Amino acid sequence: MAQSKKAKALAATVNPEALYPLETAIQMVKDLATAKFDETIEVALNLNVDPRHADQMVRGVVTLPKGTGKTVRVGVFARGPKADEARAAGADIVGAEDLLEIVQGGTIDFDRCIATPDMMGLVGRLGKVLGPKGLMPNPKLGTVTMNVGEAVKAAKGGQVEYRVEKAGIIHGRLGKASFSAEDLRANFDALLDAIIKAKPSGAKGKYLQKVALSSTMGAGVRVDTTTVGNII
């Protein structure tokens, strides 16, 4: 997609080598989001960990207080009363063997997947399909639970999963360009707080190495990590 003259001019104001205070970086990224749609504001955090080692994996879920700005479709594997509970909580698709067949057929019409514990024998057959997409239910993430109603509401209400990648980077979504700078900062603080609390025992030295913000179509803006809060 070709950039407008305004977008090019704005991008030219970003020094790729400079480190900007967090609040300045947030406003810059908002200003750089000049596409005709409501761009997503994203963050990349470089951590001093090697996730190839089990004691340095960083993974969890966090509820962003201002939401994500995205409509999340939730699929639930459950039967009987628990299936009814999931539907009542707003799940978009609920089923058991029938949902298994749909997914095996190549249709995955949900962004989060939740299952009751008794369904995991069934869901386990979908490991090669759901696993690579990060959709496999996991008890540590609260997506294998008997409290399916609460899990569905959490997924719909701004809960997001974070997971460190091979290079030690966590990519996250902070909201939309239409969000206020204050709301984006609140979501950033919530995500960072969760990641700090999830610092693994095997992590040594400075934990947070780099932070960068960007919008879907905009230039990246590097953040001065000394301005983001209490870092351990």
Strand and helix map with partners:
Layout: H1 5-12, H2 22-32, E1 40-47, E2 59-63, E3 74-77, H3 80-89, E4 93-95, H4 97-104, E5 112-115, H5 120-123, H6 127-130, H7 148-156, E6 159-163, E7 169-176, H8 181-197, E8 208-215, E9 221-223
Parallel strand pairs: 3-4, 3-5
Antiparallel strand pairs: 1-7, 1-8, 2-6, 8-9
Your description of this structure?
The chain has 232 residues and is an alpha/beta fold. Helices cover 31% and strands 21% of the residues. It is built from 8 helices and 9 strands. The chain has helices spanning 5-12, 22-32, 80-89, 97-104, 120-123, 127-130, 148-156, 181-197, and strands at residues 40-47, 59-63, 74-77, 93-95, 112-115, 159-163, 169-176, 208-215, 221-223. The strands form 3 sheets. It has a 4-stranded antiparallel beta sheet, covered by helices on one side. Strand 8 (208-215) and strand 9 form a beta hairpin. It is globular. The protein starts with a helix and ends in a 9-residue tail after the last strand.
List keywords for this structure.
232 residues, alpha/beta, 4-stranded antiparallel β-sheet, 3-stranded parallel β-sheet, 9 strands
How many whole angstroms does the radius of gyration measure?
19 Å
Number of helices: 8
| Residue-averaged pLDDT | 91
Number of separate strands? 9
Sheet of most strands: 4 strands, antiparallel
Q: Show unreliable segments.
A: none
User: Structural class per helix/strand content?
Assistant: alpha/beta
- Tell me the fraction of residues in β-strands, as a range: 15-25%
Shape: globular
